[in-house]
Amino acid sequence: MLSNPPAPSAHVDRELVVQLRLAVMRLARRLRQQTEGEITASQLSALFSVSRLGPLTLGALAAVERVRPPTMTRIVGHLEAAGLLVRRPAPADRRSTEVELSPSGRELLDRSRTRTDAYLAERLATLGPAELAVLWRAAAVLERLLEADERR
């Protein structure tokens, strides 16, 4: 939710920025297409965040997902109605609630991971050893980019 996105740095090749953005977006779209059709990409992302971070308040989940609280309230409402998340009182403050995965939510994430991993493994199997080595290095660099963004 950046109001004024930073301009690309002068020392970074603009073509690299464009090519990387498009490739990452296309890969993310293809991976999303491998997931369950019954929930949206935003709902799936919220489930993954709750799975990764444990029980969260709606405000904390909204911050992690970088959406406004009313948007997260709607997302969680759909997930709760589908039986994928459950609300419970927050241990630290009984006036507040947290959401956590239900067994059905965990099963959906497991199926989703299995399908997306299989799709990606199938695609990676078409590459040679040198290309796979490049992707190993690129994956580490992309992870560093994300970690730097999360520290902001």
How would you describe this protein?
The protein is mainly α and 152 residues long. It has a single domain, classed as Arc Repressor Mutant, subunit A (Orthogonal Bundle), CATH 1.10.10. It contains six helices and three strands, in the order ααβααββαα. The chain has a three-stranded antiparallel beta sheet. Helix 2 crosses helix 4. The mean pLDDT is 89.
Number of strands: 3
Strand order of the largest sheet: 1-3-2
So what's the CATH class? Answer: Mainly Alpha
CATH homology group: Winged helix-like DNA-binding domain superfamily/Winged helix DNA-binding domain
Please name the CATH architecture. Orthogonal Bundle
Provide the β-strand percentage band.
5-15%
Alpha-beta classification: mainly alpha
Q: State Rg.
A: 18 Å
User: In this structure, how is the largest beta sheet organized?
Assistant: 3 strands, antiparallel
Outline type: globular
End-to-end CA span: 12 Å
Low-pLDDT runs: none
Domain module tally: 1
Secondary-structure element sequence? HHEHHEEHH
CATH fold node name = Arc Repressor Mutant, subunit A
| Chain-averaged pLDDT | 89
Number of helices: 6
* Range of helix content: 55-70%
